[in-house]
Write a structure and sequence with these properties.
Layout (H helix, E strand, L loop, with lengths): L6 E5 L3 H11 L3 E8 L2 E7 L7 E5 L9 H13 L4 E6 L2 H10 L3 E8 L5 E6 L5 E6 L2
Parallel strand pairs: 1-4, 5-8
Antiparallel strand pairs: 2-3, 3-4, 6-7, 7-8
């Protein structure tokens, strides 16, 4: 089998704030931005990696969930318990300083975890956890 990860999905509740965070703070390229108002689907990804993307999607767009489920998702987003993604960098300290200077909400400063990974964590404007691990 030849399978790759092309796109992961994170929900947003404010497309302009999500766009500013992923484009301006993380430095990702905007690959597409379709829809209008709060019903926008924004695809972003790291420069130089055109085959890897994150789709930032509105939580209210899925027709297969009930209103109760939709409310639960929105509540979980507000608490920061719904979505998360793991990114990597070769210089965790410099990445952390840049994100912190960009007013990203710090969840965890760079830490060597008991399982051997050194990482840090932030929240995006929708509450999604962005963990960044150091690779050498």
């Amino acid at each position: 089998m030849d399978i790759t990860i092309n796109t992961s999905v994170l929900l947003h509740d404010d497309p302009d704030a999500a766009l500013a965070f992923y484009r301006d703070t993380l430095g990702f390229e905007v690959r597409s931005d379709v829809g209008s108002g709060t019903m926008r689907w924004i695809t972003v990804g790291p420069a130089g990696q055109p085959d890897t993307s994150i789709l930032l999607a509105p939580p209210a767009a899925d027709p297969g969930i009930t209103e109760d489920e939709r409310r639960t998702v929105v509540e979980m987003m507000a608490k920061g318990t719904h979505g998360w993604i793991l990114l990597s960098t070769s210089d965790l300290d410099a990445t952390f300083e840049k994100l912190q200077a960009g007013d990203a909400e710090v969840v965890q400063e760079p830490t060597l975890q008991p399982y051997g990974v050194r990482d840090c964590a932030f929240r995006d404007p929708a509450g999604n956890q962005i963990r960044i691990k150091e690779v050498r």
